Amino acid sequence: MPSDYKHFEYMLSKNWIVPTIVYYNTDLNEDAPLMTPKYSNYVEATRAGEEKYYSVKDFWIKWILIFIFSFFGTCAVITGILIKLL
Q1: What is the reported pTM?
Q2: Which region holds residue 15: left if phi is over 0, alpha if psi is between -120 and 50, else beta?
Q3: Are residues 30 and 57 in the same domain?
Q4: What are the pLDDT digits (tens) for 13-64?
Q5: Side-chain half-sphere of 3: how many Cα atoms within 13 Å?
Q6: What total of structural domains would you count in the chain?
Q7: CA–centroid distance for 46 within its chain
Q8: What transmembrane ranges does the database entry give (predicted)?
Q9: What contacts 21, CB < 8 A, 6 or more positions away?
Q10: Residue 59 is inside which H or E element, if any?
C-alpha cells in the first residue's frame, strides 16, 4: 500500500497498520545518539486491523447472502402464486 493511499493516514491513526522496519541505523552522531529505525515502503496489519478487516468483510457477505436468499424466496412465492392462479 503506497503512502499516498487516501485512507493511509486514517488507518495509521487507528493503529490498524504499522510501518515495516527494515533495519536500525546505528550511526551515532550528535543529533541522534540513539538507534533510529529505517522503514520500508510496506506496512503490516496489526491485530486490530485484521479484526476490523474481517468484521467489515463478514458484514458485506452477510448482507449479500441475505439479499440473494430473499430474492429467491420472493421469486418462489410469486411462482407458487402464479401456478395456483393458472
Answers
A1: 0.52
A2: left
A3: no
A4: 998 988 888 887 777 666 666 777 787 878 888 999 889 888 888 888 889 9
A5: 7
A6: 2
A7: 11
A8: 60-83
A9: 37, 38, 39, 40
A10: helix 47-85
